[in-house]
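Chapter review: from sequence to fold.
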Amino acid sequence: MELKSALLVVPVLTLPDYSIPFVIETDAIGNGIGAFLMQKDHPISFISKGLSACHATLSGYKKELLALYKNGKENLVADALSRIQGAELMSMLICLVQADLWDEIKANWTTDPLLQVLIESLQVQPRKHFTWLNPQLRRTGKLVVGDDTSLRTKILSLWNFTHVGGHSGIDATTRKVMAYFYWNGIRSDIANFVYKCVVCKRNKYDTSAYPGLLQPLPIFAFPWMDICMDFIEELL
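The token string follows.
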């Protein structure tokens, strides 16, 4: 009931108004932590993550210390996030930003020939890493995306161009996308996509270490101070 109530109250995210104070609502329960950045009782941004095996064994009181705690009935929004599974949260995120993306991913499983063969084989014999349940095609818990360039581009655009991605760079975008999706060559596709992003090229500064000043060769004080030799053979 709490999850349904929370989703009915806050169906979509909104843009922030920096002239109004922000409120953070958080909760930790079970094996997850959820937090909402609120403004005028409306969500601006959110985060939800699972607890590590070490933290999952902590008592309820200690788990609450991993997040700012707001009491019971006043904390419906964050309670919903802390109780929701990662895949369901990803579905919420996709629906909030682009409603038809989830449908395209599901349709891709029925149109890609290789994925059709994989799904049929999974229904007969389970395979390592891959599962077909609910019905969703996953590899180690991540949604499998077939050989569809437009769909892959749409996914990468969502996690790079929009406020969800925020042009975070190759490493951060790779972590975000690979937390939910899998396809062959996903790392190289993400790197090439972000590398070609015009906004990133214009606004991202070079984070490599400064090489320092050039060190020219010393000026010799007199002839034959430094002698070098090389052997060259088979000249025509």
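Two observations follow directly from the output. The domain at 99-205 is CATH 1.10.340.70 (Endonuclease III; domain 1). The first strand starts at residue 23 and ends at 29.
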